[in-house]
Design goal:
This protein has about 300 residues and is mainly alpha-helical. Helices cover about 65% and strands about 10% of the residues.
């Protein structure tokens, strides 16, 4: 499935789980289930915003955005992180009041059933989203999937807590559990915001991807023979949503014709794109006896 299709499904699942969890809270009066329902509201808002950002990210380059719109997905991840943090603070506020004034729970059995059903829906959707996120390299899908997994663990904790309340009669366990849920999703919100910020700041490619790039380049400069004089330097990488970029210099024998040099560059580009899907390479050709001094301070004189 495409990221857009999965996010549309996520919106539908979020609406269903909001209905189920809100019903569970209304039936039982559990502040733990209330915290679970609030997190589902965050799921809905995140999926809607993620769908908008993924749609923008697929737009082709234009005059104002010549490198494309791929970074739009990072806004989705950051926005979801902000919503998660806001939901966590709201849960702490509600649970704090209930901790000072514990209330008896009602019809816990039905509440548990509704919570388990909603968790199963979120778990299945998260599994599918993780698979698609790896295929499409979509941070928006991955962020939504991670939040859904957090939601599943949250629901599991709430269910265990409600069972304990029923067996022990300790009403304070319910709000205490809700605070634990809030702290858990708060950590996830901070993590999402951090990852989003790194993407917006042109974070380098993953070490395993960089290793694949270097291994591919090594095949074009084997020891011995006429190609042994080819070398690569000043390699820099970055990623923007689903797109990956690499820039470097390729030094060639100065007596080569421009046509021959261009042909070798084309072969390097093709090899890199085969080794790393979604990669875009910018290669500057230089004679082997010429060095580029990037980042050097300009001559003050």
């Amino acid at each position: 499935m495409t990221p857009r299709t999965l996010l549309k499904i996520s919106i539908g699942v979020a609406l269903v789980t909001i209905l189920l969890k809100t019903s569970a809270w209304a039936i039982t009066g559990s502040v733990g289930l209330l915290s679970d329902a609030l997190e589902s509201l965050v799921n809905l808002a995140s999926a809607v915003f993620g769908l908008v950002m993924v749609t923008i990210a697929t737009r082709p380059p234009d005059e104002d955005h010549p490198f494309g719109h791929h970074k739009a997905e990072y806004f989705s991840s950051g926005f979801e992180g902000i919503l998660i943090i806001a939901a966590a603070l709201g849960i702490v506020w509600a649970a704090g009041h209930r901790l000072l004034d514990p209330q008896p729970l009602e019809q816990v059995g039905w509440g548990l059933v509704l919570s388990v059903v909603s968790s199963a829906l979120n778990g299945l959707l998260a599994w599918q989203m993780f698979r698609a996120a790896r295929v499409h390299r979509s941070i928006a899908l991955e962020a939504d999937a991670r939040h859904l997994v957090t939601d599943v663990w949250t629901s599991a904790g709430v269910v265990v807590g409600l069972v304990l309340v029923q067996f022990t009669g300790w009403l304070w366990l319910d709000p205490l559990l809700a605070i634990g849920v809030a702290l858990n999703i708060l950590k996830e919100g901070v993590r999402l915001m951090w990852r989003s910020s790194q993407g917006l700041m042109d974070e380098a490619l993953e070490p395993e991807v960089l290793a694949a790039i270097r291994q591919t380049l090594d095949t074009f400069s084997p020891p011995g023979g006429e190609f042994s004089t080819i070398r690569f330097d000043h390699l820099a990488t970055r990623k923007a949503g689903q797109r990956r970029f690499v820039d470097f210099h390729m030094h060639l024998p100065p007596n080569w014709t421009l046509a021959r040099a261009a042909a070798i560059r084309a072969d390097v580009e093709k090899a890199l794109m085969l080794a790393v899907p979604g990669l875009r390479a910018t290669i500057q050709l230089l004679p082997s006896n010429v060095e580029a001094h990037l980042g050097d301070d300009p001559d003050p004189h």
